Amino acid sequence: MAKAKVYALTVANGALLEAPAFESHYRGSNWLAVIDIDGSAPGGLSRRFLNRGKGECLYLIEQLALFDAVEFGADYTTSMGNKQRYRWYGVVVAKTDSEIHVEEASSGAKAVLRSKQAQQSIKDRAAALKTERDALVKRAADLEREIQELTIDAESETGSETAVLRES
What we know:
alpha+beta, 8 strands
């Protein structure tokens, strides 16, 4: 079995900035939903829709949890009223402040089954925690660099202030 492709999608302040399926035309309709199997629902899937964002913020994803099965929908209605439907299914396999990693699935049912498997898998949980840890370590290194730069700037600033006081 081939390894499923994992997409890293950009997040900022709890808003998803990119999506694997999105119709930008004014006659387009888009959504992101957490899905589950439900034989009585349209397409056999129940959907909990996430709120849309404004501008470049596509979706607000605070409610999105690790190992949620998701559906990205992007429909386009032609000027003649014909609907072109596009669905993209996946499972959230890692979540950080700056990204979510979504593993692609070939159908909604397969995404839900993979989600349930991942929720029980120690290996999947460890991989998700490693991704989160790596992001935190990178952020800590960036903060350390910034502290060092500010400390150097503050020391040089203090030295020049002392020189000005001596001249006065």
